[in-house]
Q: What sequence folds into this?
């Protein structure tokens, strides 16, 4: 969970903001993500690292997205971090190391919840560069992603841990569905450009 309400420096990196409930939000997200993919993406695996825990409503955005994507069985996309097997502060370093061992030159998209300004609650932010998980609860964790998707689930500024615990599940679920549907649409847009390659290092040994 990231807490920085100014998560994007628009002068230095590509970024966009989409309200989860606006018309065609998933399609807009799909287009934004596709535009941020590198030109050589047809020769790299896309790995989605969905960060968070099901033990906190506000911080469950990532695992919810992961579980929704896992059900879709997306081609050439690898999903890590679900409600069943979350990636959180306790196991993150181990999980990230495992991902690096399993995939050759992956393009990693970090997905996480964050806190921000009142007017930004419900907004999904897409940007180049990594997300910084744990910043909102003063945990020193590694940055994740070549790009990231962050959902602003509640307001920052006071007792962030309690704010996350008291975030409405309804909002988090709606945002998770928008993100998952957008990634699904993006995968369909890109499917024809992807080669039928087995990206697992284990299969190349």
A:
């Amino acid at each position: 969970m990231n807490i920085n309400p100014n998560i994007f420096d628009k002068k230095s990196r590509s970024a966009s903001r989409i309200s989860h409930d606006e018309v065609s939000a998933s399609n807009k997200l799909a287009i934004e993500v596709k535009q941020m993919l590198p030109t050589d993406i047809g020769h790299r695996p896309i790995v989605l690292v969905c960060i968070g825990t099901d033990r906190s409503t506000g911080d469950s955005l990532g695992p919810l997205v992961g579980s929704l994507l896992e059900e879709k069985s997306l081609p050439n996309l690898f999903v890590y971090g679900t409600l069943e097997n979350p990636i959180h502060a306790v196991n993150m370093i181990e999980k990230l190391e495992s991902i690096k061992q399993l995939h050759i030159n992956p393009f990693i998209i970090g997905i996480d919840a964050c806190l921000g300004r009142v007017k930004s609650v419900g907004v999904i932010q897409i940007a180049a560069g990594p997300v910084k998980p744990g910043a909102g609860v003063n945990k020193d964790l590694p940055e994740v992603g070549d790009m990231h998707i962050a959902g602003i689930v509640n307001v920052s500024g006071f007792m962030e841990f309690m704010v996350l615990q008291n975030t409405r599940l309804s909002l988090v679920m709606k945002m998770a569905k928008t993100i998952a549907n957008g990634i699904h649409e993006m995968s369909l847009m890109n499917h024809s450009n992807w080669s039928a390659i087995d990206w697992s290092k284990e299969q190349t040994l």
Q: What stands out?
A: Residues 169-190 form the longest helix (22 residues). The chain has a mean pLDDT of 85.
